[in-house]
Amino acid sequence: MARTLTLLGLESSCDETAAAVVRQAEGAAPEILASVVEGQAQLHAAFGGVVPEIAARAHAEKLDLCVEAALAEAALDLSDLDAIAVTAGPGLIGGVLAGVMCAKGIAAGAGLPLVGVNHLAGHALTPRLTDGLAFPYLMLLVSGGHAQFLMVRGAERFARLGGTIDDAPGEAFDKTAKLLGLTQPGGPAVEAAAATGDAARFAFPRPLLDRPGCDLSFSGLKTALMRARDELVAAQGGLHEQDRRDLCAGFQAAVADVLTEKTRRALAATGDDRPTAFAVAGGVAANATIRARLEAVAADHGLPFVAPPLSLCTDNAAMIAWAGLERFRAGQRDGFDLTARPRWPLDTAAPALVGSGRKGAKA
Ligand code: KG4
Ligand code: ZN
Known about the structure:
By secondary structure, the chain is an alpha/beta fold.
């Protein structure tokens, strides 16, 4: 019998505290009944990055308020839910623990089943929530904490084709902004400055393009930008506004080139296993230059390009409720022994990614 499922989802693995309610009648398009996201940017602003202890404490304080707000927005109470889904990793462990403990408390109190969700699976399954994509599809996740190419074959079947071996691209945008005295988060500030810059003035490297495969690296690019900045400062005693714009344009062009070429390779690597679409998620996918280049690669391969709306590309709990709903419908449940995991690769057959940045483990 077709069954309608309604799940509450919780997310607290980085610096957004979020709760959402998603409903799906079997075989029909899912509906987001509520999505509440409480950012912590102002709490971390003075420190130039996410401070894990401050994040964990804020999650513990805000989670139940976000749950109340999400249920009120959906006009539901706990008895209307079929299960509760929660991010159980990867991420900053204090925040993940706060979410898992909150979900266990609600599950125990309301007698609801519990479903642990991998945060990366939440991002990777979002195109099914927003656009109903059929498996398999190729996904590029590019955010402040993650960078990986995933072939998404099923709700729990992922093949990682490549990923960053050091920084995530959003992290590189943020560090670039910091080096140039621009505002945080760096992505939008660097993109705005790059709009009137000359991308050809500085010859920045295109890291790892000389090596086969789909792995990515951004830390060398950041170092090259720092050297170029230091040379200008030494020669002129400071940076002119146009220098900043040109540095940003050169940096953004290098990131765009690398992501474009690696996407080409990832699509070529799918071989006969033709994906139904190429999808992107993560804050960096908001960058108009990068997005246009990626869209063009998809078009060259005759594939639809899917970029969920930004509010669902960046960290949120609707993606967790949805990934939980997919698991729950497939009969998956977790017990009260569900653990919070700082690292949790989606593809356990692929070698571990070594990077672990400011925003926690990369996988
Ligand atoms: O997905 P997200 O909201 O959070 C996680 O990292 O999980 O991504 C945030 C990252 C930040 O590093 C931010 O600088 C970057 O995405 N970002 C951008 C742009 N907007 C946000 N990077 C480049 N261009 C943008 N327009
Ligand atoms: Zn994320």
